């Protein structure tokens, strides 16, 4: 019996090799698509666009700084290695209408046994701050974690000094624990 897909990819260019999430799915890698954004597994083909987007940021309060093309390549390589052990799944955040990469986010510290995961390593180009991009990305990630994967706990992580990210997390209805 075929399982029904949770959402559909609406992209000009087909993305091969990845399935849409279904009930009982692994947490990654997968494609998550909403009205405005598509989250697709971060791959080497994203290097140029990701670097172009990352150059526009102030990285002083963000971990894993992407200041050079080599930094982006290294981040993707590290993510692919972590993906092999099912401990992390990084995504390129793409605006559907423009088919343009505007940031990245990830499932981190994946614990399949206890169904826990962290959402983090999130950044977007400044022109996307305050738009529908972050709420929709987080909605897609949370929905997939809870409804498809069966998560018991999902947490967010941010630097205590990064007030911009902290406010964005609070807007989602999350609570700080420590």
Q: In short, what is this structure?
A:
With 178 residues, this protein is α+β, with helices and mostly antiparallel strands. It has helices spanning 47-54, 69-84, 133-149, 163-171, and strands at residues 32-33, 37-41, 89-95, 100-111, 116-124, 153-156.
Please describe the topology of this protein.
Layout: E1 32-33, E2 37-41, H1 47-54, H2 69-84, E3 89-95, E4 100-111, E5 116-124, H3 133-149, E6 153-156, H4 163-171
Parallel strand pairs: 5-6
Antiparallel strand pairs: 1-2, 2-3, 3-4, 4-5
Helix pairs in contact: 1-2
Write up what this structure looks like.
With 178 residues, this protein is an alpha+beta fold. The protein has one domain (32-171): Gcn5-related N-acetyltransferase (GNAT) (Aminopeptidase). It is 28% helix and 22% strand. It has 4 helices and 6 strands; from the N terminus they run ββααβββαβα. It has helices at 47-54, 69-84, 133-149, 163-171; strands at 32-33, 37-41, 89-95, 100-111, 116-124, 153-156. Strands 1-2-3-4-5-6 form a 6-stranded mixed β-sheet, with helices on both faces. β4 and β5 (116-124) form a beta hairpin. The chain starts with 31 loop residues before the first strand and ends in a 7-residue tail after the last helix. Residues 1-19 have low confidence and may be disordered.
Largest sheet, if any? 6 strands, mixed
**CATH architecture label name:** 3-Layer(aba) Sandwich
Number of strands: 6
- Outline type: globular
Give the full name of the CATH homologous superfamily. Answer: Gcn5-related N-acetyltransferase (GNAT)
Estimate the helix proportion, in percent.
25-40%
Total tally of structural domains: 1
Average pLDDT number: 82
Specify the number of helices: 4
Distance between the termini: 45 Å
Task: Look at the helices and sheets and give the structural class.
Answer: alpha+beta
Kindly provide the radius of gyration, computed on alpha-carbon positions and rounded to a whole number of angstroms: 15 Å
Order of helices and strands: EEHHEEEHEH
What share of residues are in beta strands? 15-25%
Strand line-up in the sheet with most strands: 1-2-3-4-5-6
CATH top level class name: Alpha Beta
